[in-house]
């Protein structure tokens, strides 16, 4: 990791230390479980133990009728309905709690209240439920099995959507190809695992008349809109607050049935309620991620140039379409991103979004792209291997060139700018492939096989209006707002509707304010996550906040700066053109200055000191959209050196290098931290994390004993190089970068493992690359004599 | 994930603990560190009416060096074994094993007796105690009892302990000063339970070799032991013969391992044997 | 309910507890120790790590009733501890935290790592942190922070275990 430099620069580009650290290091900040109310009830959900069943009889425990609630007890309430505009999409209604049928293990059936969580769980155990079990759809291969019952009423097959892309001339590519090869890849289902689970606290505020919903969420305003719709309430009757959020990564970016259930029950009963998700609930009943299967056929010329690409993509989206993303999001992203950074012009693909009796699939860091990157980057290595070429060289022959931007991809995306080859060359220089031969020599005759792997990724960020409209979602997240106030003593308060959950946005937005206003970041307070504080906005997801909220804050500060300069010039008795903002002061050309505090005092407490043309007060609300609304595109290349232990099947990462471009970097320390965090999750996908299901739909990893999350010994310190080509379409040239670190590690690591195993005739194309899978690959008939 | 209602009692003698267990008619459970039991209670995958906490019983926390053997009370923590706070009869095998159980915070409270009594096949002490030829001691309604560690486990999570017996201690014979040992376990990540495990001890008067993490009781490997007795050093070319001996032993024990598990167990065994001949534990360093 | 008496962060605390109450829940409720975070409730993630009788422990898999008579420290009570003070400074300097949920457990664990290994190598720090899951940082900043703290603590500032 690049060592963060001393905080000599406070604005954009400086590695200033984080403003939010102090309260988190105290351990005393307020997460959802820390929020109480007098008389609050603890909630436990009775969750389905079976994958697919009609509920033929439900019975509350005797004496607990006022502490156990079924759907009918919640009053008028609509199910969560995440409809895609795509033609042929099959709708699923996701009820707050089960409406006579359960469709996955973990689906809520009853809300149980206790004075302690233990007492609430006692009640959940005592509810009598008669399940009339139905056959479960537990595998993609079963989604079109006519013998299995439809998961949702009226469905003719258990498929949400089938979509197709056909551009260019794939048949001509096939005819012209010197090499055509077909490969199958699997990226298995995983859980998302924020360290803090989800959670909701609801109560009625009698003074304001609001139903208050605290939720560990990434987008409070959007949740308010959705809750209002499902509950039939006015938005003004609801206040949604996200407290300190202990990690999220997408899992807190959905309207959850639990949020709706608690809000409805508080509305109905007036009771204050608290539900804190436990780890087992998180693993089985929070949204899951990935579960992609690919069959990819590539046609290339003799030099490894791709002439055409064909693919069948299948994604198991689980039992319900999640709001607002819709079930086809994963497969849609995968089909759009499969061509990756390559100038592929002939592309034919089918994307199938299957339904199953599993927990619904939701957004998780990377969304669709880790799978697509895995498939295309494995394929590039297979081309290289088949032709006896260097894998980086094959990529260099295929990348979209710097002079080709903006590039309209075969997947229907518009790439803004970049130099993909520069990232690949930089990553190769860092990993030093020339040392592999010596390492192999050194370990010859041992169980260890050395391999090297690369993967280049694209990360579309700060998607604008056009992108979301194209996807056909219920909400178009095309902009962001910010409202800023200078206080009467000269500090800056910025109210933003995004939600910081570890990204350091309080710090980086303050850095933007510093550049616009000359104010010390320590004098800036960023408040977020509360519909009562900030104007409407979309929240923090899809690597959008630094671009979008940074843009909104920048525009607001720019407007405020103009007013401050006007007042400052007046107080200094010079013309406005002759002053500038610096170090917390308005400074005149001659050197005379007036501090912000004095200007604020004039603006609020001494209007007699203001020029006639200036209104009192120092508040601005601004909104921001990118100049072109097809996204700012970060990208990079990961390179990894591994040793595969053929005796056990373990993979050890010996070295990891990242060369990436996220445009203008606001805070290099924070960017490195995001990149390392993403890498850790990508390593989890590659080597450790899996949520398997049994044939009858039982999730098989319900604790951290079964679901392995990488720890400190499993995650190497990567070396990171920043290329930093500013985006032409965003304020400051910033590109988002929160997800990129998680996208290519499965591809790069799997490429390295295959590079190591290739001399043994063994191949593996399924994540996670567990010891057992690697040993089975070594045992496969085509594998030769192996080490053990 | 909170425990169901449960009663708790802390007796002041082992005999009282046994009495409490008997009175409860099988609905009580011994608590001895709780590092595995309390998670099971939190998950409600185990339910008992009463916990009988023996962790603090002085006799169960003590350790004594009795010359040819060491006796460890059942509630000696992994950490005390790890740091040498209790006598080590094993030429370093036990401290080394203890230091690789789970994580420090768990080692600080988890106990050797609690681990043995739970008999999770993937845990370390079952195979280690069997390999060291230790004896497990308990007290039950009929008084004290004991058996060789090798015969203690009947199946996964099932031991010779009766419902009302309290495991009180372990007697571990002192290894010969010239004894050399090796262990190797396959964990997917640091501190995780083992997926395969082997222990080899070479010493004058008889070698010992066991596989752990077998989904059942540890498997003793007599043919491997014979082979070890004849080895003068370790050469990778011996691996094939070792693997054949292991396979014969597993079959002779009436047990079976999946192909993958057998492959990995063979590796663990070969590395354990190599380590007993002084090979460094095979671990690659991260290149800079 | 059963009576217990223990010392939490230097203060004697008497309470009647339901025997099923975990130490973590007891500390959060009876001692307002909300630095004790619950991340798994089965002893794997380390977010609830505290100090019991001088050694770190997982408060989610201890029962409060069984800790009668124990001396307990949570992060709340360690404000004056020089090792914790340095660790806080080092975590801030080295970007050793993002969302902050694992942070209290990391700090308490790191304190014991330094007490067992006053001048640890990176490998030792990583192994010793293996039982504390961080989902945000990829550990680089945390490992750097523990090493930074070790370098910046003066001799004698780390009390032996």
Automatic annotation (TrEMBL), chain A:
<feature type="domain" description="Aldehyde oxidase/xanthine dehydrogenase a/b hammerhead">
    <location>
        <begin position="26"/>
        <end position="135"/>
    </location>
</feature>
<keyword id="KW-0500">Molybdenum</keyword>
<dbReference type="InterPro" id="IPR036856">
    <property type="entry name" value="Ald_Oxase/Xan_DH_a/b_sf"/>
</dbReference>
<dbReference type="InterPro" id="IPR016208">
    <property type="entry name" value="Ald_Oxase/xanthine_DH-like"/>
</dbReference>
<dbReference type="GO" id="GO:0016491">
    <property type="term" value="F:oxidoreductase activity"/>
</dbReference>
<dbReference type="InterPro" id="IPR008274">
    <property type="entry name" value="AldOxase/xan_DH_MoCoBD1"/>
</dbReference>
<dbReference type="Pfam" id="PF02738">
    <property type="entry name" value="MoCoBD_1"/>
</dbReference>
<dbReference type="GO" id="GO:0005506">
    <property type="term" value="F:iron ion binding"/>
</dbReference>
<dbReference type="InterPro" id="IPR000674">
    <property type="entry name" value="Ald_Oxase/Xan_DH_a/b"/>
</dbReference>
<dbReference type="Pfam" id="PF20256">
    <property type="entry name" value="MoCoBD_2"/>
</dbReference>
<dbReference type="InterPro" id="IPR037165">
    <property type="entry name" value="AldOxase/xan_DH_Mopterin-bd_sf"/>
</dbReference>
<dbReference type="InterPro" id="IPR046867">
    <property type="entry name" value="AldOxase/xan_DH_MoCoBD2"/>
</dbReference>
<dbReference type="Pfam" id="PF01315">
    <property type="entry name" value="Ald_Xan_dh_C"/>
</dbReference>
<protein>
    <submittedName>
        <fullName>Xanthine dehydrogenase family protein molybdopterin-binding subunit</fullName>
    </submittedName>
</protein>
<keyword id="KW-0560">Oxidoreductase</keyword>
From TrEMBL, chain B:
<dbReference type="InterPro" id="IPR051312">
    <property type="entry name" value="Diverse_Substr_Oxidored"/>
</dbReference>
<dbReference type="InterPro" id="IPR016166">
    <property type="entry name" value="FAD-bd_PCMH"/>
</dbReference>
<dbReference type="GO" id="GO:0016491">
    <property type="term" value="F:oxidoreductase activity"/>
</dbReference>
<keyword id="KW-0285">Flavoprotein</keyword>
<keyword id="KW-0274">FAD</keyword>
<dbReference type="GO" id="GO:0071949">
    <property type="term" value="F:FAD binding"/>
</dbReference>
<dbReference type="InterPro" id="IPR002346">
    <property type="entry name" value="Mopterin_DH_FAD-bd"/>
</dbReference>
<keyword id="KW-0560">Oxidoreductase</keyword>
<protein>
    <submittedName>
        <fullName>Carbon monoxide dehydrogenase</fullName>
    </submittedName>
</protein>
<dbReference type="InterPro" id="IPR036318">
    <property type="entry name" value="FAD-bd_PCMH-like_sf"/>
</dbReference>
<dbReference type="Pfam" id="PF00941">
    <property type="entry name" value="FAD_binding_5"/>
</dbReference>
<feature type="domain" description="FAD-binding PCMH-type">
    <location>
        <begin position="1"/>
        <end position="177"/>
    </location>
</feature>
<dbReference type="InterPro" id="IPR016167">
    <property type="entry name" value="FAD-bd_PCMH_sub1"/>
</dbReference>
<dbReference type="InterPro" id="IPR016169">
    <property type="entry name" value="FAD-bd_PCMH_sub2"/>
</dbReference>
TrEMBL record, chain C:
<keyword id="KW-0411">Iron-sulfur</keyword>
<dbReference type="InterPro" id="IPR036884">
    <property type="entry name" value="2Fe-2S-bd_dom_sf"/>
</dbReference>
<dbReference type="GO" id="GO:0051537">
    <property type="term" value="F:2 iron, 2 sulfur cluster binding"/>
</dbReference>
<dbReference type="GO" id="GO:0046872">
    <property type="term" value="F:metal ion binding"/>
</dbReference>
<dbReference type="Pfam" id="PF01799">
    <property type="entry name" value="Fer2_2"/>
</dbReference>
<feature type="domain" description="2Fe-2S ferredoxin-type">
    <location>
        <begin position="2"/>
        <end position="78"/>
    </location>
</feature>
<dbReference type="GO" id="GO:0016491">
    <property type="term" value="F:oxidoreductase activity"/>
</dbReference>
<protein>
    <submittedName>
        <fullName>(2Fe-2S)-binding protein</fullName>
    </submittedName>
</protein>
<keyword id="KW-0001">2Fe-2S</keyword>
<dbReference type="InterPro" id="IPR051452">
    <property type="entry name" value="Diverse_Oxidoreductases"/>
</dbReference>
<dbReference type="Pfam" id="PF00111">
    <property type="entry name" value="Fer2"/>
</dbReference>
<dbReference type="InterPro" id="IPR001041">
    <property type="entry name" value="2Fe-2S_ferredoxin-type"/>
</dbReference>
<dbReference type="InterPro" id="IPR002888">
    <property type="entry name" value="2Fe-2S-bd"/>
</dbReference>
<dbReference type="InterPro" id="IPR036010">
    <property type="entry name" value="2Fe-2S_ferredoxin-like_sf"/>
</dbReference>
<keyword id="KW-0479">Metal-binding</keyword>
